[in-house]
Amino acid sequence: MFHPSHQPITGTILVADDQAANRELLEELLTAQGCKVITVPDGAAALEELTRTQFDLVLLDVMMPHLNGFEVCEKIKNNPDTYLIPVIMITALSDKQDRLEGIKVGADDFLSRPLDRTELLARVRSLLKLKQRTDELERAESVLFSLARSIEGKDPYTHGHCERLSDYSTRLGEHLGLSEDQLIALRRAGIVHDVGKIAVPDAILLKPGRLTADEWKLIQEHPVVGERICSPLKSFRFVLPIIRHHHEKFDGSGYPDGLRGEEIPMTARVLQVVDVYDALTTDRPYKRAFSITDALQTMKQEVGKGWWDPRIFDQFERLVRSGTADFLSRGAAAGAQS
Description:
Blueprint: E1 12-16, H1 20-31, E2 36-40, H2 43-50, E3 57-61, H3 69-78, E4 87-91, H4 96-104, E5 109-112, H5 117-153, H6 161-176, H7 180-192, H8 202-205, H9 213-219, H10 222-230, H11 240-245, H12 266-280, H13 292-304, H14 310-322, H15 330-337
Parallel strand pairs: 1-2, 1-3, 3-4, 4-5
């Protein structure tokens, strides 16, 4: 009878332990199962190896010279290039405090010495399967990001728009004290907010003149289309409201749902403000880039018309004028110098 524990394990694993005998034992056990294993004798060497090789799992001894396992784990989990790699902490200690410290620095699992071979392989198999699914999710996100950038690339006047919105909205969100989930959503939404324009013909999308009523109606459907494209990704659950509602207006005159005031998600209101700012401060076929002063004055007038959240715009204006964040886009820089 086939048993899950007899399945081969595939993946690249980093083992960090200052005891050669421990490294050799783990390497022997894991390579026998089909894994590629790289071993290092201390925490500093582990971090160095992580800059050179893509790993699917890290096994860390707690007590190591230079950097201990807790310190290495914390650095792995605080690095955007490595934080999704699962980490198993291995210790001879059964002290509850050590486990609490491991949880605090982001460890995904724990093993105690002497190691039980069956338990080790079961935990490794489980975390490698989790990493595989995480990688699949990342690939799906990458496809969406590439699609969004290809749409942006059709119009030379919007070059860099997605990256700027991702950056601007995250900075404004941090200034407003938004949660980490909201900041991640803003960073992603800055890239994919207009992905629904894939359904809009280029003849309409790039039309230099005034749109007809039918053409405008088609443009207004792109937030709903974008939401539909991104909805299968569970990791985008906080991004979807931004995609759908970033063209709503505070007085209810926006689209697609005519939401007003606080009905519009906070994150969508943040993206709206930086989206308008970027549009004003970059060259477009129908206008030259505004200076920062003129852009903020125009936006203030639009706030007076009831279009944008006055509190968010006030904080954005303060952030721009304070100089603590660089909101000089390519167009704004040129406008400011003219």
